[in-house]
Amino acid sequence: MNKNGVVLAAACLCVLVSCTDEDKTVRVPDVQLQKNNTVTIALARNENAKYINIFRKKDAEDDGAAINIGEIIPTDKDNLTAYQFVDQYFLKDEKYEYAARYCFSDGYILTGWGTWNSDEPLSGTKSYSWNDFSPDAYLEYNEETKCLEVCGDDIPAVLDSDSKAADDFSIVLVLSYAPDSNTKKTRTFAVNESGEISAGLAVGKVINLRSVLPQDFFDKPVSVVGMIGQKVDKSENYTMLFWSELQELPVKDVDGNVLADITIPFNSSADDMYDYSGINNSAAVKGGAHSDGAVRPASFEYIPQL
């Protein structure tokens, strides 16, 4: 199916949903394997969704193995009926399944899993990687300045399968905290200056946490999940994010002690909604899978078993 056909298929799905101002019904993504060895994931638009995350897992894997590969954030000018997310970085000879997680004002709704309608695996070998990421690299937290500093070794640029820097990908910091005992809020934060896209981080690079954290990350124990490569594609209708694999990175104090979390005193900033939480961050998910492939909100919270 060509690009227009994929978008049309997703548009038809959205018509079937019959979205209203209060409707939160979503559908399984329409997944197509293309001749150019990319995967297109068509996602029905819901005008009430704040953003949509795209998850990927290998065929027949448990849901918990899924990774968050990207996000779509609609703009106020969004007039589309569907979105098309293109996945082109994966492992050879694998077949993947995809699910979408829609974020509404009162929580998430997770769709079921979709894949392409054949047993044919991918033949490409592209993947985002950190082939020369040094085990000596770590982040040092300075309690006095509230800053993180790259120490031990340089953090390399994100690489593609040809060991070349992945164009338009910048390194971002992934931070997380728990608003309550059942939920984690995980966000990405830019650490490269303007013009440093595709560049790594040299030893001595300082990250001022006060300048990047949104308001609700202050005065709480925040953990450093690691670093990923992030590509941002903006249009009149949406901001689309593409994420590489996660690289975990330890955080130590100035005396070399490993820190499980850090707490920064309050400073006001806005949340940009770059939501990198995992698929099991589902305490706020409302709804479950129905036999027609749709997921509808319920009046109680639980983790859907898809």
Describe the structure.
The chain contains 1 helix and 18 strands. Strand 17 (288-289) and strand 18 (294-296) form a beta hairpin. An 8-stranded antiparallel β-sheet has the order 8-7-4-5-15-14-11-12, with no helix packed on it. Strands 13-10-9-16 form a 4-stranded mixed β-sheet, with no helix packed on it. The chain starts with a helix and ends in a 10-residue tail after the last strand. It is 5% helix and 34% strand. Residues 1-20 and 286-306 have low confidence and may be disordered. The chain has one helix at 3-17; strands at residues 26-27, 30-33, 39-44, 51-58, 67-74, 82-87, 96-104, 107-110, 138-142, 147-151, 170-180, 183-190, 206-208, 223-234, 238-243, 251-252, 288-289, 294-296. By secondary structure, the protein is mainly beta.
Features:
5% helix, mainly beta, 18 strands, disordered N terminus, globular
Compressed to H and E, one letter per element, the order equals: HEEEEEEEEEEEEEEEEEE
- The helicity comes to under 10%
Please compute the radius of gyration using only Cα atoms. Answer: 20 Å
Structural class: mainly beta
Mean of residue pLDDT values: 80
What characteristic shape results from the CA principal axes? Answer: globular
Question: Strand order, biggest sheet?
Answer: 8-7-4-5-15-14-11-12
| Beta-strand segment tally | 18
Identify low-pLDDT runs: 1-20, 286-306
CA distance, first residue to last residue = 27 Å
Give the helix tally.
1
